[in-house]
């Protein structure tokens, strides 16, 4: 018969040996945490490993909270408020803010770097306007509204056997929704494979 061992009476080395032999034994791990906490040498890794092997982590949480005392009084509130108000009265220096996705350079830096030859496109557009060029909207096919081109309509055409019309609609959807172009192109390839 095996003699029971009282883990509360073991030394730290013996307790570590028990944990090495039986790593799943949560009681030994908890006792080691109790002793390490009392010595002030409890590590986060040890807490995490102990929590993994305990059935009730509330015991471990109670052990960790027992060592802490939190002062929730408002005795320093007046001093903190005065320090905050006096800090607001000081003049603030201009901070440089970088917006993620925005321009890295400020407008002043652009103005300093600008040269006379930078306006090529604006000069070209002004010259074209002076020669009588007017911008026209692209013509839509007669009698067709681009708002009615949907994936559902293309699916209906496909079910009815009008695969070329479905391909045309998917091609228009590629132009209308470029972020879904790969998806629509895959559908067009699938239609072409079925037709061949």
Walk me through what this model shows.
There is one protein chain. The chain is mainly α. Among the domains are: 7-66, no CATH class; 147-195, no CATH class. Helix content is 58%, strand content 0%. The protein is flat. 7% of the residues are buried. The mean pLDDT is 80.
Main attributes of the structure:
single chain; 196 residues; 0% strand; flat
Spell out the blueprint of helices and strands.
Blueprint: H1 12-21, H2 26-39, H3 44-53, H4 57-66, H5 77-89, H6 107-113, H7 120-130, H8 151-159, H9 163-176, H10 181-195
**First-last Cα distance:** 80 Å
Helix/strand-derived class?
mainly alpha
Number of helices: 10
Residue-averaged pLDDT: 80
What can be said about this structure in brief?
The chain has 196 residues and is mostly helical.
């Amino acid at each position: 018969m095996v003699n029971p061992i009282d883990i509360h009476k073991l030394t730290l080395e013996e307790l570590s040996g028990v944990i090495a032999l039986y790593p799943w034994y949560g009681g030994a791990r908890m006792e080691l945490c109790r002793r390490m906490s009392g010595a002030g040498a409890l590590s986060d890794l040890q807490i995490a490993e102990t929590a993994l092997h305990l059935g009730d982590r509330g015991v471990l949480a109670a052990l960790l909270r027992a060592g802490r005392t939190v002062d929730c009084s408002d005795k320093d509130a007046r001093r903190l408020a005065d320090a905050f108000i006096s800090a607001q009265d000081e003049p603030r220096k201009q901070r440089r803010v970088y917006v993620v996705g925005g321009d890295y350079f400020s407008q002043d830096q652009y103005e300093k770097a600008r040269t006379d030859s930078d306006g090529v496109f604006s000069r070209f557009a002004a010259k074209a306007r002076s020669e009588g060029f007017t911008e026209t909207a692209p013509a839509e096919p007669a009698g067709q509204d681009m708002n009615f081109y949907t994936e559902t309509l293309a699916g209906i055409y496909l079910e009815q056997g009008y695969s070329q019309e479905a391909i045309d609609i998917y091609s228009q959807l590629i132009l209308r929704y470029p972020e879904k172009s790969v998806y629509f192109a895959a559908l067009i390839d699938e239609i072409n494979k079925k037709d061949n």
